[in-house]
Amino acid sequence: MITSKIHSEPLPDPIETLERYFREGGKTLLQAVFENTFFVAPAAVRNQPTFLPDYARTSKKYYPRKTRGNTALWENRLVKISDNSPAKKAWEKYSGQKIKRGRGYGVRHIWGEPWNPIAFTAGWNLAYMPFWAGMLTEDQHPHLEVQKAIKQASWDLYFRDNPVCDIPDFVQNPRIDLAELLGNQPLLILQPTHLPEQSPRKPELIFKPSEDAIKQQLIRGGVVYVTLYKKDGSEEHKEWKGNNFIEKSNLRGNIWSGYLRNWEQKGIVKAVFSNTN
């Protein structure tokens, strides 16, 4: 029969305990993390740095009162608010691996910023990690060495020599030597059979004579002439009357939710807004 005893000492630190168990088994915690962490192939990320650039994750700070399925503005861009499902979908497309429930793995955002649409489904921001390792990268259970090492892996894979895309301001070289920390443990890459297809490029917006002039025309209740250019070579001409348009109105937000709604299905590649016909 199992015995029991009263524990009167301070509770052990779970991370220190985990480190000790790995150390006794001949590995450091960091080596164990990287032995079970997988990254996207750089070629797949270069082909499409952000898989679903119109999606962002829910955030009380950045999208107050917005829930899954709502739309919101991010830096004058209309984005769709969601849970973590788009990031999981992106991982599956980038890696060629289906995410299976009950396997103890999850998709983690290396640099955070899931509310930012350029980072939420970006291949350079995704890692597939066991839950026990992934929690060490989160601010709730931080292990600073693990956090920095995972970011260094992303930097070395995607940004060091030939960046896969423009480097965001929040992505910076942690400046640690992974080879020294990991020894013979390599970075593990999942290579898809086929590179994910690139998302269609969003339509180019042109304002004549300027964006501010177009907004002021609408505020005055005037007419703006809209020309939509389509990939089949056709054009569509419309008139935008400035009814109910005020100083606080968001010009680009109105464009993306109005004339350019469902632009992919309509095949729109360019939109010109002019205050003269």
What tags apply to this protein structure?
277 residues; alpha/beta; Dna Ligase, domain 1; 11 strands; 30% helix
Kindly give the count of domains.
Answer: 2
Helix content: 25-40%
Oligomeric category: single chain
Taking pLDDT < 50 over at least 5 consecutive residues as the criterion, the unreliable ranges are none
Helix count equals 11
Q: How many strands in all? A: 11
**Strand line-up of the largest beta sheet:** 5-6-1-7
Order of helices and strands: HHEHEEEHEHEHHHEEHEEHHE
Largest sheet: 4 strands, mixed
Mean pLDDT: 90
Task: Give Rg in angstroms.
Answer: 24 Å
Query: How much strand?
Result: 15-25%
Q: Which of globular, elongated, flat, extended, rod-shaped describes the shape?
A: elongated
Terminal-residue CA separation: 91 Å
Structural class: alpha/beta
Overview in brief:
With 277 residues, the protein is of the alpha/beta class.
Can you give a write-up of this model?
The protein has 277 residues and is α/β, with parallel strands linked by helices. It has two domains: 177 residues, no CATH class; 71 residues, Dna Ligase, domain 1 (2-Layer Sandwich), CATH 3.30.1490. The protein is built from eleven helices and eleven strands. A four-stranded mixed β-sheet has the order 5-6-1-7. The mean pLDDT is 90.
